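Severity: low
Component: inverse-folding endpoint
Summary: output formatting inconsistent between runs
Steps to reproduce: submit the following structure tokens with default settings.
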């Protein structure tokens, strides 16, 4: 059994292995171990679940071949790995969004794509992140896009530069500015360009498309 906040059809709003703008099934899992300052899904933080469903039930409700698992934090429930494996067995393409604070069990491998946050200063949750070395060790064997949600404060920009410098060449990175329309992307581009232009090569800038078009 697994705690679910909601299952719905929408567009994949951000950069990931499911192309941004693709119609897909979104499974929002209930419960999160973090409390980011700018969380936009506060209703999914509590462990009090609206629905407790069997894995079979969840999979039966996934109508689309592309399934995006998000939260809350999917990895606080150990059943999530079983759900991922079963969705893949049923021929879905699966992408999981996770907050970066929880590592996968050693030896667990999956064909799904992982969009893994590394939380910066503006989240207020940076002290809950693993060290750069632990993060690399956790995720290097998996299909990962590292997502950095940032504002354009001096400390967040410095954080982006530190992450890119330490993990350069190991992952792809999605930069997701806090303003939904991406008006601050140019500030971020200019900051990185001044420090080390080649770091821009690994970046994908992402705006939250679902918010721009008014979908969940
Ligand atoms: S990890 Fe995600 S769901 Fe949890 S508090 Fe942060 S933004 Fe909200």
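Observed output (run 2 of 3):
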């Amino acid at each position: 059994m697994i705690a679910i906040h909601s299952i719905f059809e929408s567009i994949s709003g951000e950069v990931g292995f499911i192309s941004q703008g693709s119609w897909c099934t979104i499974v929002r899992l209930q419960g999160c171990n973090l409390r980011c300052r700018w969380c936009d899904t506060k209703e999914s933080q509590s462990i009090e679940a609206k629905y407790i469903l069997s894995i079979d039930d969840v999979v039966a409700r996934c109508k689309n071949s592309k399934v995006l698992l998000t939260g809350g934090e999917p990895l606080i429930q150990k059943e999530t790995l079983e759900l991922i494996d079963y969705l893949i067995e049923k021929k879905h393409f699966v992408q999981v969004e996770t907050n970066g604070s929880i590592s996968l069990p050693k030896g667990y491998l999956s064909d799904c794509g992982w969009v893994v946050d590394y939380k910066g200063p503006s989240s207020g949750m940076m002290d809950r992140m693993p060290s750069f070395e632990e993060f690399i060790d956790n995720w290097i064997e998996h299909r990962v896009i590292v997502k950095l949600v940032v504002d354009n404060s001096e400390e967040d920009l410095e954080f982006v530069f530190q992450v890119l410098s330490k993990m350069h060449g190991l992952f792809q990175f999605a930069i997701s500015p806090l303003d939904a329309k991406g008006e601050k992307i140019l500030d971020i581009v200019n900051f990185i360009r001044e420090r080390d232009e080649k770091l821009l090569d690994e970046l994908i800038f992402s705006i939250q498309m679902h918010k721009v078009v008014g979908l969940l």
